């Protein structure tokens, strides 16, 4: 079992930055592929980024490439999402997720993740 708690959301102007954190409790954090998803009002949950067990491999959805960076600190059981040059269309609830599946390249679907945090709101004003 893994418990996930996100933090770092808030209100920011377009062009600004935020860093989301996801603290994990439970065993063997380093064995889990970690991901970030987001869900805007009236829309389906969307894959944002994922990172391999070691942190050496990452994947991003096209709309955030070059602006967002996912990273992890296995010693601190924490995964981060650095979000720069934020746009109003980035407004959503952001969810941290963990999966015990094997790492693979490419985007991921929400059903592939076993554990989820409660979400943190990110609002970008124009």
Care to give the gist of this entry?
Helix content is 0%, strand content 50%. By secondary structure, the chain is an all-beta fold. Strand 5 and strand 6 form a beta hairpin.
Task: Tag the structure with descriptive keywords.
126 residues, mainly beta, 7-stranded mixed sheet
Write up this protein.
The termini are far apart. The chain has strands spanning 2-7, 10-13, 18-26, 33-39, 46-51, 58-60, 68-73, 78-83, 92-99, 115-116, 120-125. Strands 2, 4, 5, 6, 9, 10 and 11 form a seven-stranded mixed β-sheet that branches. The chain is globular and about 40 Å long. By secondary structure, it is mostly beta strands.
Structure annotation, total helices: 0
Shape: globular
Computed Rg: 13 Å
Roughly what fraction of the amino acids lie in strands? Answer: over 45%
Termini separation comes to 40 Å
Report the uncertain regions: none
Mean pLDDT: 96
Order of helices and strands: EEEEEEEEEEE
* Largest β-sheet summary: 7 strands, mixed
- Please tally the β strands and state the result: 11
| Portion of residues within helices | under 10%
The class by helix and strand makeup works out as mainly beta
């Amino acid at each position: 079992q893994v418990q996930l708690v996100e933090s770092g959301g808030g209100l920011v102007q377009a062009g600004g930055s935020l860093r989301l954190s996801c603290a994990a409790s439970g065993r063997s954090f380093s064995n889990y592929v970690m991901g970030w998803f987001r869900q805007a009002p009236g829309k389906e949950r969307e894959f944002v980024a994922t990172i391999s067990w070691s942190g050496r491999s990452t994947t991003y959805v096209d709309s955030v490439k070059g602006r967002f960076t996912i990273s992890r600190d296995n010693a601190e059981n924490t995964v981060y999402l650095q979000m720069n040059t934020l746009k109003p269309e980035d407004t959503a609830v952001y969810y941290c997720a963990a999966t015990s599946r094997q790492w693979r390249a490419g985007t991921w679907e929400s059903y592939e993740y076993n554990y989820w945090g409660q979400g943190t709101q990110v609002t970008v004003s124009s």
